[in-house]
Amino acid sequence: MSESHISFGDIRFVTSRPHSFGLVIDGIAIDSAANAPEDYLHQLLLSPEHRDAFFALIEIEGLVICKNVRSDSPTYRKVRGKSSTVKLSQAEYYHHDGCSSPTKPRVVEIRFPHQDVARDVATAVAPLPAVIRAMLMALPERMMKDSELVAFRHLFSGSVASYPSPETWDHIQGKVTRMVRKEMDAEACRTYFRAVDQMADAYVKPWEMGESRLMLNWHRDLNRTFQHRRAYQRPREALEQNGSLVKRWTAEET
Question: Domain of 227?
């Protein structure tokens, strides 16, 4: 993992690429630290001067992760969703935010604020085409009885050029999701989605306090969009405690 730098105005940031996609802003470079605030996300990157350039960076990278940010911005809201040992929450399935809205938010930010409780539950983030392909490929053979899904899996098994039209992806994903919800129990379904995460090469690295993940949730070119989900990395246990996440639709809410 190589370290490099990017600059916004006269402030330099240390960056890295620990995954096959996305950019991590690890913090402010030492030579800029004296002039930079702790909440560099709001006071620098999302300031009127740099806002457009920062959102352009998110469009290019798909996922930008800002670490070591201390912020008490009031624009965040709690990430909700109830799951149990016998039932998945809706957040555990891959999704875009704003699915039921006429217009989906351009950028979704999920944040792990500083708090007393650590977080063991991951958040998986992956490009939409990789998610759809992985959901088909990870299906057990015993569930491949639907001729339409067989045909779609064949198309996704070839080169990107052979993939079906993006206009069909929502239909494919919905059909597979309904199937696994119906035919798998909760832990089998979680095991299936862990396999999907791996096949899609999802970003599932552990959360660090003060970390914000900003992803391209919506773009007119669906190939460039990302989906995410709550991802348990081991069997779900009753009454387990985890630190809480917050989120917002950053382009629309700040």
Answer: 73-127+201-253
Residue (of 239, 236, 21) closest to 124 by Cα position: 21
SS3 (DSSP) at 41: helix
Measured torsion, CA atoms of residues 80, 82, 83, 88, in degrees rounded to the nearest 10: -80
**Domain count along the chain:** 1
Count of all residues that appear for the chain in the document: 254
pLDDT tens-digit map of 42-90: 999 999 999 999 999 999 999 999 999 999 899 999 998 777 878 899 9
Q: What percent of the chain has a predicted confidence (pLDDT) above 90?
A: 83
Dist. CA 199–CA 202, nearest whole Å: 8
- Asked whether residue 114 is assigned to any structural domain, the reply reads yes
136-142 long-range contacts (CB < 8 A, ≥24 apart) are 136/172, 136/176, 137/199, 138/192, 138/195, 138/196, 138/199, 139/176, 139/179, 139/180, 139/192
> For the chain, what is the largest distance between any 2 Cα atoms, rounded to a whole number of angstroms?
62
pTM of the predicted model as reported, rounded to 2 decimal places: 0.94
Model confidence band, residue 3 (pLDDT cutoffs 50, 70, 90):
low
